[in-house]
Amino acid sequence: MNHTEANQSGHFLQFSCPERSVSTAVYVLLYVCAAAVVLLTVCGNLLIIISVCHFKQLHTPTNMLILSLAVSDFLVGLFVMPTALIWMIESCWMFNRIICICYIITTYLLTGTSIHNVALIAADRYFALSNPFLYARAVSVSTMCFVVLCDWCVLFSYNLVLHIVNRNFKSAVMCPGDFIALDEVWSLVDLLVIFVFPCSVIIILYVLVFVIVKKHATAIRELNVHPSIQTPQNDIPVKSERKAAKVLGIVVAVFLACLFPYFIYSLLGKAIEIEEESFQKVLILVYLNSTINPVIYALFYPWFRRCVRLTLTLQIFNTDSALMSVL
Fold it and tell me: How does it sit in the membrane (predicted)?
């Protein structure tokens, strides 16, 4: 398949996609699987967005972070994954320069936003468990919404400056594998800002979270051994916070597992030659994290399953449905 594009000097650049080496049946199956993954990603995250936005009982600071993560995952499924999967199946870049620019900017923004959202979730869980009384007084839904909005705005501005400074918008190269052209200084800055710093925060805070969880578990065992000791009144909220920390810890672990191969590639890509096919695989793994998150919520959050049932049965359109109990 040939693709032709005019560059800035008026000359035309022609790119040829290799002939398919697989049968038509396998080719169709690949597209069906790709469509299923995209549909699962979009619909799963849309259900999370609807649930958190609609039901008043879910309007909590932590859920605002889950909502932000779901929005970024939803946008990945809607705008990034279809293009990336077509690129992988066809083994070449089939789109024009404008779509390439949009793809790169969107990928950088949503990947960075997802990482920072997970870092904020880790900070939120640590604060809630380490000082629950101060957390209840200091952190509100409106405060968390402001923090999330600032995070999106700062990362959008950062990515815009990143590509303008590196003059990526003036490039005539068609394929994303060659399109990302950051110099060594900006590559290091981007690695630190988007990966090293937030991932360090995530790992450190979740180690501290699980230390706190272990202390709480030990305290509960001691209460069971000595039933004469009265259980503190805040024991039930603490148990709830521990459960939330464990579930979100699974989300964080899966997230890091999907993300590490891509950033290892980013570190080694310039030192050793890595085939474009390998790059595509690690990139798709990053995107698949957006598909996995709703599955984790469905497995571990009963409230999410109840919200899905109410949404799919159209009960959310009933009067006062927003006030229904889902917890």
Answer: Multi-pass membrane protein
